[in-house]
Every structure is written in C-alpha cells, then in structure tokens.
Amino acid sequence: MKRIALIAVVAAALVMTVTGCQEREPRADGVTVMLLTDDTGIDDRSFNAAAWRGILEFYGETWEHTPSRGTLFQTMNAPTDDFFVPNLRLAIEEGFDLIVTAGFAWSDAVGEVALDHPEQNILLVDVDWVYGPNVMQAVFAEHEGSFLVGAAAALQAVEQGVEAPRFGFIGGVPNEVITRFEVGFAQGVRHVLPEAEVLVFYVNDWGNAALARAQAMNWYGDGVFAIFSAAGASGNGTIAEAMEQRLRGNNVWAIGVDSDQFDQGIYDGANSAVLTSMIKRVETSVVYALNAVRDGNFDGRTIAFGLDADGVGFSTSNPALGPAVVSRVEQIREAIIDGEIIVAAE
Q1: How would DSSP label each residue in 236-285?
Q2: Class level of CATH domain 5-140+282-305
Q3: Under a CB-based contact definition with an 8 Å cutoff, are residues 188 and 146 in contact?
Q4: In 3-state terms, what secondary structure has residue 115?
Q5: CA distance 51 to 47
Q6: How many CB atoms lie within 10 A of CB 34?
Q7: In this predicted structure, what is the pLDDT of residue 259?
Q8: Chain centre distance of CA 90
Q9: Where are the CATH 3.40.50.2300 domain residues in the chain?
C-alpha cells in the first residue's frame, strides 16, 4: 500500500483526535495490546466486535466495564484506508506488546511496516500471505461455518413448509475470504435442497447498511426466505429490513455473521429476525496471540481455526430454530469434522 508522505504526516499528527483513541495512561505490569480497526470500529456488532471481545476475555473484563482500557489495552479506528499505515506506526511508537490488525484490509499496511520493526509483535487476522518473524496470521474456515447456517436456513424452510424457498447472500467487498462465506452458504443450502436458488449481491463497502437494506427489501419482496450477509457493518441493513418484514407478518429471516447477532434482530421486545449466525471466533485468535506474547513464544506462524478447532460455528440463541433443525445441523457439523462431508472453499 503506497501512501504519499503528506498523508502520513497529517494522519500521524491528527490520528489521536480523529479516531477517538484516548491518551494512554502510564504502562502497568502485564501484556499490553492495541486493536486497530477500520472506520466501523468495535461497535460494528460483527468482526471488530469479536476481536475486541477477545481482548476483554484475556483481561477478564466485560464490554460495559473496562477499567484497564488505556492502561493495558486500547483501540484505534482508521476513518479511511489512508490512516492504516500511520495508525500502525503510531501504535508501534506507543510501545504496545501486541498490535492486533482486524481484517485482511490491513495486509498491505502490515507488509509495509512490520519488517522495519522486527521487535513488534503483530497479529493479522484473515490473512495468510504476509510473512515476517514478528507477524502471526490467523485464518478461519469460513466456508465450513457458512455451510452450517446455509443448511440451517434450508432445514428451517422445510420445517415451516415453505414451497420452493429461495435464499440470498449479501457480501461486502469481494475477496477470497468473503468468497468462502458465499460458496459455503450455497453448498449448505443445496446439501438440504439441491435445486434451491441462491442469489448473490455485493455491496462493495463494509459500512453501507442502506444499500444492503435496499437489496434485502427487494429480495424479501420477491419471495426470498433467508438472507445471509457477510458484509461487516453493511450487514446491519439486512437485519434491519428483516425486522421490519417480520413486524409486518412476513415469514423471512436474516442470518448474522461473525458474532451472534440474535439480540440485534429483536423487533418486538422478545422475538428476533436473526434465525442463526455464522460464528467466526475471531476472539479465539486474539486470545491465542495474547497468550503467546505472555508466554514468550510469539512468532511469525499462521494459525488455522476451523470447525475442528472450534474456530467457526453457528448460533442457537433463537428458539425459532427448532430442536430438530439444531440436531440435524449438529450432525452435519460432525460429518464435516469427520471428513464425511467435504466443503469446498471456492
């Protein structure tokens, strides 16, 4: 990622104000970590939120109560891609033991900066192509988890007696990670309903919930039963539209991603429009890296988290996802782990 010098200078001078990162307090004993995110921040209720949960888990904190924030752990948002390199350099200057870069969009910035600072431990999530002795990379079998929620949606349609159900996938920015979500979901649907139609749309943005919602509205209006979004904060639009549709009495569903988005889909004080969520346990990789730093064995290796490592899965928070459906999906999960079902990644 090539950045002109002027951008870097201005960004480095203003980043603390623009991103809302508070000034750090004097360093306390223990491992320190900075989480770097894009403009959607830790409140995206999805990928970044999962990374932040991993940090809180490591320190024994909760989302509502984080007294160590600013001393041991911190977060910094990048309002645009132009801030990636400056924010990364600033975090290195601050002297954190570990820097967590949330998402493949950080790969160019890490590749540009990491080798110049071999003493700095960096976790790069969703990437396996940036190499360096100080860069740990975490990848996930998104296709396996997405297979499960695709199968769950199809089984739900069968259980509810929906005739010729159709399904939709809304992606964020096209890349090989999101492709794994897309193809895994379609395979899961067709494992149950071989002739089912799966529609695909890409927002080309991680933060355009309005566009995702407009597409969801069109699809739901055209008879689509369930929509799975792997689009960062854009996917919030799909959930919002599913809530509106169910308030009107329409039998449609949204499927969440990365985090369990059941609570986000509650539309009448009790019921949720999010049937299930493809859980991508980004927090697992963050805790793994923090433990490695604490134990003194952090190095530049790639760690893979699939179903067998409990790195991906599906949520069962919604009671509308009946026990028969959950039981069948669990059987499918075990069959994938045992190699009886092979899920293609592309």
Answers
A1: HHHHHHHHHHHHTT---EEEEEES--TGGGB-SSS-BSEEEEEEE-HHHH
A2: alpha beta
A3: yes
A4: helix
A5: 7
A6: 24
A7: 86
A8: 25
A9: 5-140+282-305, 142-280+316-337
Burial class (CB in 10 A: 0-12, 13-18, 19+), 227: buried
More confident residue, 16 or 274: 274
3-state helix, strand, coil in the chain (%, to 5): 45, 20, 35
Q: Does residue 23 sit in helix, strand or coil? A: coil
Residue with tokens 């160019």: 108
The C-alpha atoms of residue 219 and residue 102 are separated, in whole angstroms, by 31
pLDDT-based confidence at 65, cuts 50/70/90? Answer: low
Closest CA to 19 of 42, 1, 39: 39
CB 22 within 8 A of CB 74: yes
Does pLDDT of 116 surpass 90?
yes
- Distance set, CA 313 to CA 14, 262, 289, 307 (Å): 40, 14, 21, 7
Q: How far is CA 126 from CA 183, 225, 231, 299, in A?
A: 17, 30, 14, 17
From the list 213, 229, 221, 344, the residue with the least C-alpha distance to 278 is: 229
User: Has residue 29 got a pLDDT over 90?
Assistant: no
Residues 6+ apart with CB under 8 A from 186: 150, 169, 198
Architecture field, domain 142-280+316-337 = 3-Layer(aba) Sandwich (3.40)
pLDDT band at 108 (very low <50, low <70, confident <90, very high): very high
Tell me which residue of 312, 344, 322 sits closest to 156, measured CA to CA. Answer: 322
Locate 338 and state its tokens.
Answer: 């045992």
- Chain segment 187-200, per-residue pLDDT in tens: 999 999 999 999 99
Q: Is 90 left (phi over 0), alpha (psi -120 to 50) or beta?
A: alpha
pLDDT of residue 183 exceeding 70, the answer is yes
